[in-house]
Amino acid sequence: MAMATTISSSQISQYLGEKAKYFLDFNTPKIPKARLHLPGPDFVDRICSLSDRNNRVLANLQRLFAGGRLAGTGYLSILPVDQGIEHSGGASFAKNPDYFDPENIVKLAIEGGCNAVASTFGVLGAIARRYAHRIPFIVKLNHNELMTYPNKFDQILFGTVKEALDMGAAAVGATIYFGSAESGRQIIEISQAFAHAHELGMATVLWCYLRNSAFKKDKDYHVSADLTGQANHLGVTIQADIIKQKLPENNGGFLALNADGVSYGKFDKRIYSDLTSDHPIDLCRYQVANCYMGRAGLINSGGASGANDFAEAVMTAVVNKRAGGTGLISGRKSFQRPLKEGIALLNAIQDVYLSPEVTVA
Description:
- By secondary structure, the chain is of the alpha/beta class.
- The chain contains 17 helices and 10 strands.
- An 8-stranded parallel β-barrel has the order 1-2-3-6-7-8-9-10, surrounded by 7 helices. Strands 4-5 form a two-stranded antiparallel ribbon.
- α14 packs across α15 (309-323) and α15 (309-323) runs parallel beside α17 (339-354).
- The radius of gyration is 19 Å and the shape is globular.
């Protein structure tokens, strides 16, 4: 049973500030919610059980949805801490050196009421016997390392699906840099890894990130709704059960990349007139639509830590929930602060999903 909220709907409005009505009262999405497969307590029975996933995958998906403060809601709050590799240990943990110790990462996830913890083979393997039965593990299979000189940006495998299974993981995670020169190899590697994970009974989570310097023009189209939406569509094509994506900040990536006589991809202008508007909830809903209308859950990332973490985290959760998404996966905003504050931030995110006043648009 889902727990009671610790912040009220009025406090959610306070975090949103002068844009509270803009986010909370929006109810004219281009894609109506009736077309979506929405999160709910019966999501695994209603949606996942129709797929080709075997019984062990369904059991692990149900385990992901059954833990933490959001248990029984159909929503997910996940703590991801793979930044020790992706952003380097020193850069990630200098603000809070306790998190060099993997046990503190898992403790934060448990005490913060998360459904699951996502991290590296090393982090989760170091404390697996103590915690694998207490909170679902999502073991990240690949990473971008920053030791090669000069730095390169490529996701490479750090372990095997079988290692994750032996660790007791409920799911495996991976990143593909869609749009990069290496994306073809990554798609093949992760497609095969996800098929093996499903065969062995684990769920799959894909970080569908974009990576190409050409995507930065007048705006940073790495976070455009149309390009990230297509990355999501590729992710569910290789049978990711859950898609992790950055919250969209703009739109028109395909338009920008097809300017000046250049031909890139395929698009239809109705994406921008009939399927999206410039409202953040509409942009996020386009991401959900590309996750097979919600058959694969969309979780948005929390982003980097800054001066307004609580307000930004609550806003992201409101946009994701009202768009029809499945939850948030927030790391740096929570672990780069004292434990009590990190727990409070995770709880604030969860309270958005527990609040009956924050509805799907």
